[in-house]
Amino acid sequence: MSGLILVAGAISIGFWLFRQLIMDDKPKAETPTKKNRMDNVEEQPEIRTRELLLETLVEIGCQPEVNEEDDISVKFQGENFVIRAGNDSKMITIWDVDWAELDLNIEDNISVEKLKFAINDSNQKTLITTVYTIDQTTNRFKVHCNYCMLFIPQIPHLDEYFSMVLGEFFNAHKNVTIKYRELMNQPKIESADHGFSIFHN
Fold first, then answer.
1. I need a labelling partner for 155 at 20 to 30 A (CA). Which of 96, 182, 195, 196 fits?
2. Under 8 Å CB-to-CB from 106, ≥6 apart: which residues?
C-alpha cells in the first residue's frame, strides 16, 4: 500500500514539473510600461516644431505669414499675434503686442498705477502673462500679452488645444480692462480713462 502511495506521489510531482516546463516555453506577453510607450513615441518620424505650427494654424482657419524678423504673424478672431517658433526647440512663444495703451500726455500717475494694478491682478487669474512697456518717443504706456508653451504632435487634439490657448489672450484683455475701469470709477479717482485705448488691428 505504501508503495502505491509513493508511486502516485512521484507521478503527481512529475506531472507538475511537466506543466511548468510547458508554461516556461510559451512566449510571455509584455505588459505595456511607460518606457515602452516612450520608445514607441521616439520611433515615430520627427515633426519639426515650426512646420507643425504652420500646419496647425491652417487647420484652425488662419493664414500665417513669415515677417521680416522670421517670426510667424497670424490673425485670430481679429487680433494680430506674433509667434516665435524654431525647429531647434519644442517650445513656442506667442505674443500679442500693443493691444492697449495709455497716453501719458493725458493721463496722470494715478491712472498708470491703477493700470499696473490691473495687470498684476490679471496675471494671478489667467495662464497668459500681461506685461507693459513705456515708449519714450511717443510717451505712451503700452500693454502686451505673451505665453510660452510646449508644442508637440503628442498633444491630443492639438488644433483645439491651440485655439483654446489663443482664446485665453482675450480673457486676459477682458480681465485687465474690467479691473482698470473698475478702479478708475472709484469715487476717490477724479481722472477719467479717456486716455486708455484698446486696439484690435
1. 96
2. 194, 195
Structural element, H or E, at residue 142? strand 140-150
Place of cell 481679429: 78
Which 3 state secondary structure label does DSSP give 191? coil
Q: How many other β-carbons are positioned within 10 Å of the β-carbon of residue 95?
A: 17
The pTM is what?
0.71
Give, for 7, the enclosing helix (H) or strand (E): helix 2-25
Q: Read off the pLDDT of residues 13-41 as tens digits, 9 standing for 90 and up.
A: 444 444 554 445 444 444 444 344 345 55
Q: Cell numbers at residue 22, please?
A: 510547458
Tell me the β-bridge partners of 28: none
The one-character DSSP state at 111 is H
Query: What is the C-alpha separation between 114 and 195, in angstroms, rounded?
Result: 13
Q: What is the torsional sign of CA 94, 55, 158, 42?
A: negative
Report pLDDT digits (tens) over 64-94.
Answer: 999 989 999 999 999 999 999 999 999 999 9
Give the pLDDT confidence of 166-192 residue by residue, as tens digits: 999 999 999 999 999 999 998 754 444
Residues 98-109 as b/e (b if ≥16 CB within 10 A, e otherwise) read: bbbbbebeebee
Rounded to whole angstroms, the Cα distance separating 115 from 176 reads 8
**Closest Cα to residue 162, out of 92, 96, 98, 97?**
92
